[in-house]
Structures are given as C-alpha cells and as structure tokens.
Amino acid sequence: MRLLLIGLDGADLRLVERWRERLPALRGLVERGTSSALVSTLPFATLPAWSSILTGEPPGVHGVHDFTERDGYRVRFTGATRRRVGTTFARMDRAGSSVALLGFPATYPPEPFERGICLSGWDSPVAFEADASFAHPRSLHREIVRRFGRAALAFGDVDEFDCGPGWHEELPGRLCARVARKCELYLHFLRERPWDVFACYFGETDTAAHHLWALSDGSSPRRPAALPEPNVIEIPAPVRCPSLHVPKPAKEAQVDSNLARLGNPLRTVYEAADRAIGALIDAAPPDANVLVLSDHGSGGASDEVVHLNGMLAEAGLLAFRPPRMGGLARIVKSAGLRALPPRLRERAFRAAGAFLPSVLESRVRFGAIDFRRTLAFSEELPYAPSVWLNLAGREPRGIVPARDRERILDRVAAALAPAIAAAHRREDVHAGPWAHRAPDLLLELAAPAGYTLCLEPSPPSGGPVRRRLRADEHLGRKGAALSGSHRREGLFAGDGPALSGGGRVAMDVIDAGRLIARLGGLEPQERAPLVDGRTSPLTREEEAILARRLGALGYLD
Q: At what angle do helices 356-366 and 540-553 cross, to 10 degrees?
C-alpha cells in the first residue's frame, strides 16, 4: 500500500498538541513524521476545501466555491456536481492503481473507478439515508447494508437542527458511537483486499467542535454559568480584533446538572477519532505512508452577532424593500426544518415540489433587498462571509458601473471594518477559469479575545446591526449561532517512508492535494484534466433533497 489517507473534518493541530497525551495515534504521526497547521481555502469551508484536497487544484480551477451557485438573485443547490476537474483518485485509478475513496464530502456523484470503490459523502442529494446512487459500484451499497445495516449509511442519525433538552448531553456519546461504526466499516474494506490507496473520512470532529466548544472551553463567552472548569483549551495567540462594544448581559446562574458531568466533551470525541486512526494504522501494511488531514480548523465563537447587510444599509450601500419579504420566507423555511423529524422533512420537501427549496433560499438571501437602490450585498452565510457588488451588466438589476468597482469595494471594506479582521478582493485570492464564481469580496470575521463573531441574516424587521446573544442562545443549534466556528488553519500529520522526520512545515490544502497525488504514484502535472460528465446540474428533485440535507446540517437557516 502506498497511502492510507484519513480525513478528519475540522480537526485542528493546536488541539492535537494541547491533548497530545490523550491522542497517541495522532501524537505519533506528529512526533515521528511531518506536520502542518494546514492552510485552508478562502472561504475556509467544507466543499471548496475538500475539493482542493481531492483534486490538488484551487477553487478557481475546480469550480466549487459553495454548496450553491448564484444565478442573478437566485441560488441553485449544486453540491459538488459542478466540479470541473476529476479527483486525484480517479487519475490513480486510470493509472492502474486500486483505490478506495470512502465517505468524503464533495464526491457526489461517485466516480466510476474501474479497480476500486467510491462511497460519496453527505453532500450528495440524499436525505435521511443514503441510497445506491452514491455508491460505485452499486453492489457496494448492497454489501454495506447486508453486513452493517442501514445505520451505517445514515446521515441524519444526529439531528443537529433540533437541539432540545438533553441533546448536548447525548451528543458526545452518539458521535463516538458513529466514529466506531464508521471505523468498523472502513476496517472491513481495508482488510478485504490489497489496496494501493485507501482513503476514508470522519466528520464527527467538526460536528463536535461546532456544538461542544462552549462546554469544553472554560474561557468561552458562551460557556453556561455554574459549569465546573474543564481542562481549558488554551489556544495560543488569539487574534485581537476590534470589539463591537455591545453591552454584555449577565449569565444565567442555573445549568443542567447532566451537562456538568460531561467533562471535556470535545476532547472525548477527539479521543474516539484517535482510537479509530490507531486501529486503521494497525490494519494497514507497516510500510504504508499514513496521512491524516482536515479541511479547516476549529475555534470558539463569540457571543456577539453581526448583520452584514444591516451594516451595508447603514453605510448607504444597500437598501431594503418594504415590506421585508425575506423574513416570511425565513420563517416558513425554518419552521419546516425544525418542526419535523428528519425522515418526515425529506417527504415534506418532496411533496412541496422541486422548486420550493431554491425559491425559499433565494427569498431568504435576497427577498428583502431592493436591488434597484443597492450597490453591494451579502448572502450572510456564517461559514462563508462575503460581499457581492450589484454590478451593471452582470446582475439583473445591477447599478454599479465596472469603472466604480474598486471605489465601491473600498467603501464596503470601510463599512464592515468593525466586524472583520480582513477583506480580500476576489482577484487577490482566486485565479482560473471559474474564479468569477467567487464573491467580489471575501471576508474573515473579527475575533475579539480570540472568539470569532457570529454572523446571522439581517432581521426582517430591521433593528440593530449587532447584538449580544441571550443566555438561552449560548449553546446554539444548527441554523443559528453555534458555539464553535471554523478557523483557516487545520491539521496535516503524516508518517511513513516518504513522510518520516519531516518536522513542521508550511502547507496549504492545494499543496496537500498534490502531495497525495505523488504519494499515490502519480507524476506531477500542471492541471488536472477537465471532466465533462460532472457539469450537469442536479435534477429538480435532487436539488430539493440536497437543500433539505444542508438545512438539517445547519448550512442553511
């Protein structure tokens, strides 16, 4: 075997170093081999970052910037189906290698390996439970169901949209069980036959960081009052950014006694992932290169919330419509996602018609904006903060002449300065044939005292452009302000014949993708070949189901 690759979504090298005595498998890779605080894409979000790792190309080349693509003032749910280049693993397969690619996001539809197997991840257009369409060959789906049951294919066994009483208490155990279940499945296929390259994915570390950060970090402004201090995370050198000076309410004095027994739940999930990594390493040939990496890192979120479109409106760059139409759409969509259990949500979205998710999401993002009087606008995505200009000739009701682009971008950056740490022009970040699909301005939110500001859609009825979360909002839920958020620097840790003794290096996700190609036996090439078969949009039904899945995972509100 040339390479055992393990994807650990949202894993952060700083946490691995902080908890190294409890993470023997990861500690061994870092100490003996090569490690890096792997730099993610901008935005540091799941789909563009994993697409870059899996292809070795930047978003401007592979074409995946988000779960959606914007067409004027409407969005379509595309997932990674619009990726314009094939994965490195498909190239390995064509070169004669036996390859297994299991569970990664940004791999739907599965590539038709001739000598291996491919199991697409959760961004595929399936809802509560995966079907045979995301497995290649399709017999792979039957084998998994026969040996492990349908639970092994479930994406919705932890409903992150409905965090009711007892939910946070149960989450660590459920995530650890899911890690163990995936590990069992991966070990079966790893041992089934000799592989040249075996790649598998765990997303539980990211889920844990989003939901359990405040319960694991004694310094978090979101930590419930009266909880005993855990072993404080102590991430060094917090980013110091301007405070919004929002009055801070007193914390509640009461806390669920069951939460107090959790200890450090985020570390508990990391320990489960480390056990799985150790088991996979033990099952691989001793001369295999082993690489564990993540798409981005994780950190704590502030208890301060900002509304970017509200800030743009205050600066005279955006105008809202009377009445605020986006508010009704947001209420309808949120109610539909929260009121039903996962299985019924899928049926409801199917029954509602294929256009409904796209229409609702478009109304939520754009329905409140009067584009005839708007110079710049944000989709207000918490995982990918950015701003578009309402350019004449590009947008249906664009009013910004091309000659004024730089001047308006300067005004936007100045207007948002209290809420951002950095603003990057698209052309300074992205290059390639699909760079134009990225927003005009990509933002990094400010992080007062090291805790990233939360981003929420501007209120339908107007009001303040920033606020403090109430105490009952501190733990958050998917679709609302979570207590943990993404960081740009993640994890790279590898050991083996080609990685041993490398020490700490500087590397980004594109470098990592190209290293994977070399470790898999491929010669370097200037650019991955274009693929025509992946550029077809989803069917309307698939788009509706993908929208439901993203909503349940919290990428949409």
A: 50
Q: Return the exposure string of 219-235: e unless at least 16 CB atoms fall within 10 Å of the residue's CB, then b.
A: bbbbbbeebeebeebeb
426 CA to centre of own chain: 20
Q: How far apart are CA 349 and CA 130, in angstroms?
A: 16
Q: What tokens appear for 135 in the block?
A: 């497995």
User: Which superfamily is assigned to 3-233+265-298+486-553 in CATH?
Assistant: Alkaline Phosphatase, subunit A (3.40.720.10)
Residue-level pLDDT at 234: 52
Which helix (H) or strand (E) is 225 found in, with range? Answer: none
Q: Which tokens hold the place of 377?
A: 């606008």
Q: What CA–CA distance (Å, rounded) separates 509 from 109? A: 22
Query: pTM for this structure?
Result: 0.88
353: phi then psi, degrees, rounded to nearest 5: 105, 155
The residues, any chain, with a CB within 8 Å of residue 428's CB and separated by 6 or more, are none
Q: What are the per-10-residue average pLDDT scores of the chain (557 residues)? A: 98 98 98 98 96 97 92 85 92 98 93 96 60 93 95 74 79 95 98 98 96 94 78 46 43 44 90 99 98 98 97 97 60 48 51 61 90 98 97 98 98 98 97 96 97 92 90 82 96 97 95 97 66 48 60 55
Tracing tokens 């996001």 back to the chain, one arrives at 105
Integer Cα distance of 130 and 127 in angstroms: 7
Give the chain's radius of gyration (CA, Å): 22
Sequence ranges of the domains in the chain: 3-233+265-298+486-553, 302-484
Neighbours of 393 (CB within 10 A): 8
